[in-house]
Amino acid sequence: MLQNENIYFFLLILPIVSFLYSSVGHGGASGYLALMALFSFAPESMKPTALLLNLFVAGISFYYYYKEGFFNKKMFLYFAITSIPFAFLGGTLEVDASLYKKILAVLLVFAILKMLNVFGKESDSVKQIKLWQGLVIGSVIGFFSGLIGIGGGIILTPVILLFHWGKMKEAAAVSALFIWVNSASGLIGQLSSGVILEKESFLLVAIAVVGGVLGGYYGSKKINNQKLRYMLAFVLVIACVKLFFA
After folding, report:
1. pTM of the complete model
2. Coil, strand or helix: which one is 150?
């Protein structure tokens, strides 16, 4: 994994990605997968590595948002009840490498739109989510989370904001824990199907955690990092194009 000739550039960008994602309550799997795709990582190592990084970064982000009082337990449970088993199911399945890249490219569009704050506008009125809505959405996002190797927050956060089920920071707090449980379930599913985590993955964890801690702390407070988000969005666009036409 770390034999790439441009690995030092990759390691330099990694904590920046984890910082930006953690600041909005995300684990960053879509960003990590995009980076690994850009640096031509082996597809079989991308999914488990991204989920492992998610566990640490999303966990850190959730801690800071929970500490600030933004967590909505009821909303989280509505999504998580079905997302956890479906993430496990998705994690046990293998996807053709070409199809995998196309699906990931489509999901990266959500990440790009999120970084550009297309879904960042809050509504003055907040509606109550219904149980059946949470169960249906949770199952769909959970399945694709395990299948592709993401936590699903990059999809869940826009959904919460679009349907006015919560404010931005509340959506971030719910998404952070949602990402954590889906990442854990998806990773367990992958490991149970014979996927092996490379030892180098834990070095990437140590580097990503640095950005995750800073992002979670400043994101749960007040921070304006819009220029950096535009830069990350640009990187994601390049990765998206590369994946789609690979």
Report:
1. 0.87
2. coil
